[in-house]
Design goal:
0% strand, 5 helices, globular, Non-ribosomal Peptide Synthetase Peptidyl Carrier Protein, Chain A, 105 residues, mainly alpha
């Protein structure tokens, strides 16, 4: 149950963060993830490296901006105060948020 709830929070965070790029770019990223990795974007919560690689391939320079936005939204939705500067280690921080979320329950 906790993993499904976290997955939903992750999906909402990613969708909200990608919305700043507009629907065409957001859909392009979703398509890229599916075509290259056979995953739905929302299923990258267990392997956020897939999302990072996809963002770099599709939008390159804006990758960090979107990653920071995803992390801020995700930590807010999970109810955890981020105690870090969001500059590096996106994948690790997503997985840490998942662990912290599971411990809270």
């Amino acid at each position: 149950m906790d993993e499904r709830r976290f997955a939903k929070l992750y999906e909402e965070s990613v969708d909200e963060a990608l919305s700043v790029l507009g629907p065409h770019i957001a859909n392009l990223i979703k398509f890229y993830v599916f075509e290259k990795y056979s995953l739905r974007l929302k299923d990258t919560y267990n392997n956020p490296t897939v999302l990072t690689e996809s963002l770099k391939s599709v939008i390159d320079g804006a990758t960090r901006v979107i990653q920071r936005r995803i992390l801020r939204l995700l930590y807010e939705k999970v109810g955890i105060e981020p105690h870090f500067v969001i500059t590096e280690g996106f994948e690790k921080k997503v997985l840490e948020a998942k662990e912290l979320f599971e411990k809270k329950k």
